[in-house]
């Protein structure tokens, strides 16, 4: 069972903010993503091929970026389970909503 971790308003705000310029997510279709909201929007707009390029059985670039750069282990785990762009978009949207509720 996963342990419950309380998220402070400051931490929620940090996770929602733009990441540093040198830590942005560079999508194979040329899109550059700097925060979770842009990631959610990107999932809605990118092709299935682009999604599958970054999320395979062997790796998940989205999950790695969320864990290593945004610093949200729970969202990283949840996004690694998403099997489609629409599922991934929904997971990110729900997390954004949760984080905003902490502000």
Q: What distinguishing features does this structure have?
A:
mainly alpha, 103 residues, two-stranded antiparallel ribbon
Outline:
By secondary structure, the protein is mostly helical.
- Proportion of β residues? under 5%
Listing every helix as H and every strand as E from the N terminus to the C terminus, the arrangement reads HEEHHHHH
**Major sheet: arrangement of strands:** 1-2
Give the rounded overall mean pLDDT.
96
How many helices? The count is: 6
**Rg of Cα set:** 13 Å
Number of strands: 2
Oligomeric composition of the shown chains: single chain
- Which structural class best describes the helix and strand composition? mainly alpha
- Our count of domains comes out at 1
Overall spatial form? globular
Give the distance, in angstroms, between the N- and C-terminal Cα atoms: 27 Å
Q: How would you sum up the major sheet?
A: 2 strands, antiparallel
Q: Fraction of residues in helices?
A: 55-70%
The low-confidence parts are none
Blueprint (SSEs and pairs):
Blueprint: H1 9-16, E1 25-26, E2 32-33, H2 36-45, H3 48-54, H4 61-70, H5 73-80, H6 85-101
Antiparallel strand pairs: 1-2
Helix pairs in contact: 2-6, 4-5
């Amino acid at each position: 069972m996963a342990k419950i971790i309380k998220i402070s308003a400051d931490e929620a705000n940090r996770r929602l903010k733009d990441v540093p310029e040198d830590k942005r997510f560079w999508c194979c279709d040329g899109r550059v993503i700097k925060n979770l909201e842009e990631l959610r929007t990107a999932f809605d707009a990118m092709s299935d091929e682009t999604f599958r390029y970054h999320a395979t059985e062997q790796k998940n670039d989205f999950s790695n970026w969320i864990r290593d750069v945004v610093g949200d282990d729970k969202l990283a785990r949840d996004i690694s389970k998403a099997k489609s762009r629409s599922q991934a978009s929904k997971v990110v949207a729900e997390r954004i909503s949760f984080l905003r509720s902490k502000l």
